[in-house]
Design brief:
The structure holds two protein chains of two kinds. Chain A is extended and about 115 Å long. In chain A, 62% of the residues lie in helices and 5% in strands. Chain A has two domains: 122 residues, no CATH class; 218 residues, MetI-like fold, CATH 1.10.3720. Chain A is mainly alpha-helical. In chain A, strands 2-1-3 form a three-stranded antiparallel beta sheet. Chain B is α/β, with parallel strands linked by helices. In chain B, the strands form two sheets. Chain B has a six-stranded mixed beta sheet with strand order 6-7-8-3-9-10, with helices on both faces. Chain B has a four-stranded antiparallel beta sheet with strand order 2-1-4-5, covered by helices on one side. Classes of the chains: A mainly alpha, B alpha/beta. Chain B: This is Phosphate ABC transporter ATP-binding protein PstB. Chain B: InterPro entries: AAA+_ATPase, ABC_transporter-like_ATP-bd, ABC_transporter-like_CS, P-loop_NTPase, PstB-like.
Chain lengths: 431, 255
Amino acid sequence: MSKSLVPEAPVSAAQSVERRPTDWRTASMQRRVRQRYAAERRFRWLGLAAVVASAAFLLFLLASMLARGAGGFVETRIALPLDLARAGLDVTPAQLRGPRADLALAGAGLERAVDTAAETAFPRVGGAALLSDAAWLRVREAVKRDPGLLGRRATIDVPVASRLDIAFKGGGTRADRAIARTLAPQLSRGLNRDFLGGADSTDPTRAGIWGALKGSLLTMLVTLLLAFPIGVFSALYLEEYAPRNRWTDLIEVSINNLAAVPSIIFGLLGLAVFLGTFHMPRSAALVGGLTLALMTTPVIVIAARNAIGAVPPSIRDAARALGASPVQVVFHHVLPLALPGILTGTIIGMARALGETAPLLMIGMRAFIAAPPERLTDPATVLPVQIFLWSDDVQAGFVEKTSAAIIVLLVFLLAMNGLAIYLRNRFETRW
Amino acid sequence: MSNAPPKMTASGVDVFYGAKQAIRNVSIDVRQEDVTAFIGPSGCGKSTFLRTLNRMNDTIPGARVSGDIRLDGEDVYAKTMDVVQLRARVGMVFQKPNPFPKSIFENVAYGPRIHGLARSRADLAQIVERSLTRAGLWNEVKDRLGDSGTALSGGQQQRLCIARAIAVDPEVILMDEPCSALDPVATARIEELIHDLRGRYAIVIVTHNMQQAARVSQRTAFFHLGQLVEYGDTSDIFTNPREERTKDYITGRYG
């Protein structure tokens, strides 16, 4: 044994490479060390630059959206002197108390009375054209609150037309800005309640985001209620129960492919199946939610499978060895441990669905919807489609509405992600 | 030694993983009052055989078991055998401590809870205390039962796993190299614990460590290449092995 370790014959000179102890202070060694440190520094700077660049893009986006869109939440109002007693409105105070007050006031010619008042008050600068379409509605609300207005002179703040609104905010044509300067003492700013509480309109000053926001909420609700349970249960079955064979391989490949299918194709599928075959209502949040659920489910399945697969097998063994049945193993141990990962995948899928436009265009959710949807089957639109529609509109007033709608969409998205992160942290297990 | 019928009997057991045969014709009796040790080199099939005793191999795809294994005369692999109940009767402790990422209390309470063994909350607390006491862990954790089981040291985790196994009051406890991830002090604690538990439960322990087998067991089985080479009283195996292969392994010629 020990003999073989010692070479018996002297080694020839060619074979022996003289090994001296390494000298770490030679110039070449020092250069190597310097190069290594330089590479480390370069890499750190590159990473930092990438982070700074993306943060700068994000800041730019947010700042420009806020700068352009903030005006969308604000309306310009003009103090309109009214003398409804002389306007000859044919309406009694009793009619104003009933549920048919709106009808009575409209029938009595309130809109015409408001227009006349504007013509009288601002004769040379545009008259009734200065007022928003919503102006007389504001007067109607005021009259319903205080029927005494019918019998006396009063000044009511009403929203102005889009042209003047833009001019007062500093945009528009030179002529409009001159009018705005002339009327400045009568003009004021206020929160645009129509924008936050109304639905789409042809008049930008009346256009509201609530209809689209509610449409998005209803659509997301349908998507979540369908995609989350189906996705999680599919993933659980595939990971915990299904045998590994050619069929399950095929299913796995199909799910991965489905997750990569362009969304417009899901829109066509929704059009053909939900509208064509099942004759569901057009433009409805229900159909939008179903279509987006088709798109979101594969994303959730993939994320959930990864999260479930990452649960250590030793935990399953431990539970099984105690006599837990397969369902108990899954619901007591695997699912709670996988939940944070599943929720992360669900957020990603839902965020994608929330921003999706193309498939919803295919099922008719791009229609002009002037009332917020009441039920899942009512015609509805969603935030990104509303943004698309407004950005396409020729009227200048819709520019700031588009930006304001983008702000609403981003806030919705942030709220959704914030909720998901909160839930994820709550369920996170500390090892 | 004793005339009582064996707790578990295995006769003519073969285990296959797909086409590969992992266990060849193994027959063994496990006695109630003894600690039985399985020794042998890595990959000899001792862990595989251990896992056939409570059917933990069922979940491995492609694993197939033939032969006859009985618990108190009942066929473990019979169609009528309820695997869930079998595993409650034949508990298991694994090589790496694997407490649930839950509180210490919940770790021990889990088994009794799923089997409905506790009649009340107080009863459950009593079961937990008794199990932790038997596992020699009670004094160390009684003030922090709400802490996570994973926050304990390795040796404590393993004793927690033993407490968890005995909380369902099993008849047999299978231990698959329970000390291989532990330091010598923790190992000594576990060995002491095995001494204390002996008699109350039939214990089968797989170990790499021959000194450990000699210290804790009364019966020893030597496995090699999927076969049972020799099975007998521990004192005989270590002092006077019948088989040449056993002698070679024990004297450190291979393994």
